[in-house]
Structure formats: C-alpha cells, structure tokens
C-alpha cells in the first residue's frame, strides 16, 4: 500500500491529507495537519459550518477542483445522498480514482473535466472541457481554493451555469493570493452578484496556528432556483390542471408503476405496462388534427423514459423542474412530472425547480 501511495504522489507529495489510506501520505508541510486552514481543519472551520442543511440524506453535494477527494469523503461521511467530484489534473485524478476505489463509498461519482482554459501547471491529459451538460442538479457545490485558478471569463461563465444547477455554492478563497486578483473577497462578491445571493461567511483569526492563512469562505444561494416539497407538488399535480392538460391522476399512477418496476423490479416489457395502456388511450382521444401517435412511437417514448429513469438513479437530474404560475388562478404549477415521480421513488422528499414565475 505505501509503495502505491508513494507512486501516486505528484512531484513527491500529496496536496491533500487523506487520512484513511493506512499510512500517512507525504505532504510538503506536514505541520499543516494541525492547522485550521488546511486539509480536515479547512473542512471543519470553513466548509462544514456553512452547509445549510439539517438532514443530508436527501441532499446531493458536488466539488469542482476536488483534488484527491478529501472533501468528497467528508461529504460522504456526513451522509449526503450522492457526492460528485470534478478534477482536471491527470495526476490528481489518479489519486482521486485510487482513493474512491479504496474507500468503497458507492455514492461518490467522479469525472476528469476542466473549466475553461486551465493554468499551464494543470496537466489536462485525458480531461475534456466541462459543459453545462456534464453538471447534474445538486443542492450544494463547493469551490474551494479554485476561483483564483480560473480566468475571469471562465469563472463568470461557471457561476452563471451553476446558478441553474446548484441551489447553493460554498466558495473558499485565500485573500493573499495577490498575484491573482480573483482571490479578493470583494471581487468575488461582485462576480457572484448577478446570479447569487450572499448569505453568510466564515473568517477565522490565524492566531496560534502552525500554518495560518488569510482565508474566507462564503455561502451563496442561487437567484434562479427554489426548492419545493414533493408531497405539495404532487398534490397540485394530482388535483390541479396539468401543465399540458393531461389526466394527471392516471399519468401519476401509471408512470409511478413504470418507475418502480424499472428501479426495483426484474424488468417488464414496455408493452405490458399500465403506462403504455395510458399512453395508448391518450393517443386514441387525441385531436386528429394534431396528428396521432403510433404504437411504435409510444414504445420508443416509453423506452426513452426507461433509460432516463436509470440515468437519474445513477447520475442525478440533468435539468431542474420548472416552477410556473397560472396567470388567472395564481396557483403554482410545476413542469417535470416524470422527473418528479422518479425522484420520489428514489426517496427524495424535495425537488429543485427553476423559478419561472415571473417569465
Ligand atoms: C488549490 S487546489 C484545491 C483543492 C481542494 N479543492 C482543496 O481546497 O483542498 C485546486 C484544484 O483545482 C484543480 N483545478 C485547477 N484548475 C482547474 C480547472 N480549470 N478545472 C478543474 N479543476 C481545476 C487543480 O488541479 C487542483 O486539484
């Protein structure tokens, strides 16, 4: 084991102190292990106290620039439902892969991606540029000592994309990274302000610390996303007028059954599902001027949903649901019934929605 750890060290050292590997990893400054500003000390002082949840079991966590994954393991330990890690650098990604495999944590998903144009010392061999498509909908994203590695236009673009994918962001920054202006607290607040609301921050006095830093962490909430309780959304869907005017009760029951079979059953042909019968009956009652659906089209549609259900189970949602408002009754309407039903069967009690009430 210690030989593997030694071989995985980038330039002879590990950037993160991963405690569960058996023997301590070689660090360039071992005294950082006792600091509030590095490794677990950074998590305990600057990150965990800002997590805005009481119960983590229905929440998803993502870190961009996660290095060997120390904070992913901390999020896993707290009980987050799914934990996503993104790392650009080839050598750090190897460490991350090794640590995830060694940890046996089943709910950690990792990918090698880079944001924009990385610094020359980040070796992006094997990495592809991250797009909005790659990002899943999560409750909180951590950008820890990453923002000052990014060019301004890449940071602004990332902040805009994340505001439609992540309910909250925690950003940790080192105010003394003077050569890179993006380390500056006020500069960051300005960058965030178009899409994010500042909620709170943590600043810690560096007295009596073996390796002090001028560090700040901040919690922001997206201006474009809101969360809703699944039960309330479901009630609206069942007894209200559907966004697309279909028989919501029948849709809900039959699609729930399809999701259940796909997730927990041992397979059933699409044609023998109640959802297929429901879709066939809708096709029969459809206005012929709008064009009729054929049986083959309906089967293709159902098979597409079956693949989507498994993708949501393995990787989470690609897009949030959409929250709208009926202009006459002022009632809230949520579009995305298929996704909502799938999340409910997966044990989620809340859904994240893009707030389109003023559009
Ligand atoms: C200073 S380290 C911080 C690691 C960890 N977040 C922490 O706080 O301990 C920055 C990390 O971001 C990664 N990184 C740098 N530029 C990146 C980019 N453009 N896209 C994705 N990751 C990047 C680096 O490879 C490195 O692992």
**CATH arch. level architecture of the largest domain:** 3-Layer(aba) Sandwich
Helical stretch tally: 11
Question: Secondary-structure element order, as H and E?
Answer: HHEHEHEEEHEHEEEHHHHEEHE
Distance between the termini: 57 Å
| Fraction of helical residues | 25-40%
Top-tier CATH class of the largest domain: Alpha Beta
How many beta-strand segments? 12
- Given the helix and strand composition, which structural class is it? alpha/beta
CATH topology (level 3) name of the largest domain: Rossmann fold
Average pLDDT for all residues: 88
- Poorly predicted runs: none
Q: Major sheet: size, sense and barrel closure? A: 8 strands, mixed
* Ligand species: S-adenosylmethionine
| CATH-defined superfamily of the largest domain | Vaccinia Virus protein VP39
- What percentage of the residues does DSSP assign to strands (E)? 15-25%
Number of domains: 2
Shape, per Cα inertia axes: globular
How would you describe the overall organization of this protein?
The chain is of the alpha/beta class. The protein has 2 domains: 222 residues, Vaccinia Virus protein VP39 (Rossmann fold, 3-Layer(aba) Sandwich), CATH 3.40.50; 128 residues, no CATH class. Helices cover 35% and strands 20% of the residues. The protein is built from 11 helices and 12 strands. The strands form 2 sheets. Strands 4-3-2-1-5-6-8-7 form an 8-stranded mixed β-sheet, sandwiched between helices. A 4-stranded mixed β-sheet has the order 9-12-10-11. α8 packs antiparallel against α9, α8 packs across α11 and α10 packs across α11. The chain starts with a helix and ends with a strand. It binds S-adenosylmethionine. The site of S-adenosylmethionine has 19 residues, from loops.
